[in-house]
Write a structure and sequence with these properties.
Elements: E1 2-11, E2 14-19, E3 25-29, H1 36-48, E4 67-76, E5 79-88, E6 96-99, E7 102-104, H2 107-110, E8 116-119, H3 124-128, H4 131-145, H5 147-171, H6 179-215, E9 223-228, H7 236-246, H8 248-254, E10 265-270, E11 273-274, H9 275-278, H10 281-303, E12 308-312, H11 320-329, E13 335-339, E14 352-357, E15 361-363
Parallel strand pairs: 3-13, 3-14, 8-12, 12-13
Antiparallel strand pairs: 1-2, 1-4, 4-5, 5-6, 6-7, 9-10, 10-11, 14-15
Helix pairs in contact: 4-5, 5-6, 5-8, 6-7, 6-10
The structure holds adenosine-5'-diphosphate and magnesium ion (MG).
């Protein structure tokens, strides 16, 4: 996938900017706070409809402005895809999505046209943070890969909210029989989520193990990823139905849904030890990189071409050997790579170097 252009208006620190990066690696250099990550965030917004670092869209609107927009044009094997997102500060106004010159009404219409994998220092939280971070990592990856996953996830979360609202209402005399309807809907949405997560984690396990070993693992360290779920993946629908039935009393008591894919986890281990609990900083960092590289492989394979690569400040934290191995692994893709020190990027020839200065100035 080739990024033809990225166009921003009143997006974070940028007033108006257009980037037309060449194929290969574009290095974005600048001091802390200069606005490097803002550029990658804008790409991410166009790919996934949301920021990778905040859930509050209004943060991305330049302080002085009421609206912000990011547009992206990519060339793929089947032609050019143009996507864009416009955000509004006004709470009631929904964000506008654009796909190939038209407005799109559903987030699912936007996702999948331009795809990216972002590497950032916060990836460490995929390993060291809680299950919610790992579910989000899986959800982002699967949503980019398969629209049905994204729709099932949306349906699941909206049904979950309604079921939880009903559970609270039941505590005040509401009709418990209504739960049957929500349970069935929830089970229907849960089944594809569980099946697709299970297949994906199987792939990630294999791919990330190899990356871990290559990037920095010692012989005796073997990386493993496994799916932790209360649902039988081979018979997800009836298993989820049974689970909801079995936990109904507890759910009514606690006024919330206690079982289902919203409680899943992606267990990461190094030679049978939990990385979350026991991994050192270095091991966790390598594991996070290995997982992201595995995402890159999965997207490349399923799309028949690599996704855009966004590498945010990741080189400085790696020793030279890991750094070189990372660069080598991702060289087939077009990449935007940020760093504070251009010497981080020794050994590989960038196609272009951009200098970013506070105030939204970009010079090559
Ligand atoms: N909504 C916004 N409006 C204007 N400036 C912003 C906004 N959000 C962040 N900034 C500015 O962007 C800069 C941080 O950009 P960032 O891309 O994170 O920097 P870095 O180069 O360190 O990655 C800060 O100077 C911050 O003040
Ligand atoms: Mg940054």
């Amino acid at each position: 996938m080739k990024l033809n252009s990225l166009r921003l208006s009143t997006f974070r620190s940028y007033e108006r900017v257009t980037l037309e990066p060449p194929e290969g690696v574009t290095v974005i250099v600048g001091e802390n706070g200069a606005g490097k990550t803002n550029l990658l965030e804008a790409v991410h917004l166009c790919c996934l409809g949301r920021s990778h670092r905040t859930t509050d869209d209004s943060e991305m609107i330049a302080h002085h402005a009421d609206t912000a927009a990011s547009y992206l044009s990519v060339s793929r094997r089947d032609g050019t895809h143009e996507v864009g997102v416009r955000l509004y500060r006004e709470q009631k106004r929904k964000k506008l999505l654009y796909v190939n010159g038209k407005t799109a009404s559903r987030m699912g219409d936007l996702i999948g046209h331009a795809t990216c994998v972002i590497f950032s220092p916060e990836d460490l939280s995929v390993v060291k943070g809680g299950p919610a971070v790992r579910r989000r990592y899986l959800d982002m990856l699967l949503s980019q890969l398969q629209r049905p996953y994204f729709y099932a996830l949306q349906a699941y979360h909206s049904t979950l909210r309604q079921r939880n609202a009903l559970l609270r209402a039941i505590a005040f005399g509401g009709d418990a029989a209504q739960l049957d309807v929500w349970d069935e809907q929830l089970a229907q949405a849960a089944a594809p989520i569980v099946r697709l997560r299970s297949v994906m984690i199987g792939k990630l396990d294999q791919l990330a193990e190899a990356h871990y070993a290559y990037i920095g693992g010692r012989e005796e360290e073997r990386f493993h990823a496994a799916y932790q779920t209360g649902i039988d993946v081979h018979d997800a629908l009836s298993s989820m139905r049974a689970l909801l039935a079995a936990s109904r009393e507890e759910d009514m008591r606690r006024q919330t849904t206690t079982a289902g894919p919203h409680r899943d986890d992606l267990l990461l281990r190094l030679s049978d030890r939990s990385l979350e609990a026991y991994g050192s900083q270095g091991q966790a960092r390598t594991a996070a990189l290995a997982l992201k590289l595995a995402s890159f492989d999965v997207l490349s394979e399923s799309q028949g071409e690599p996704p855009l690569l966004l590498l945010d400040d990741v080189l400085s934290e790696l020793d030279p050997q890991r750094r070189n191995r990372l660069i080598e692994r991702v060289q087939t893709a077009q990449a935007l790579l940020t760093c504070t020190d251009p010497s981080d990027f020794t050994g590989a020839e960038p196609a272009k170097v951009l200098h970013v200065r506070a105030g939204g100035v970009i010079e090559s």
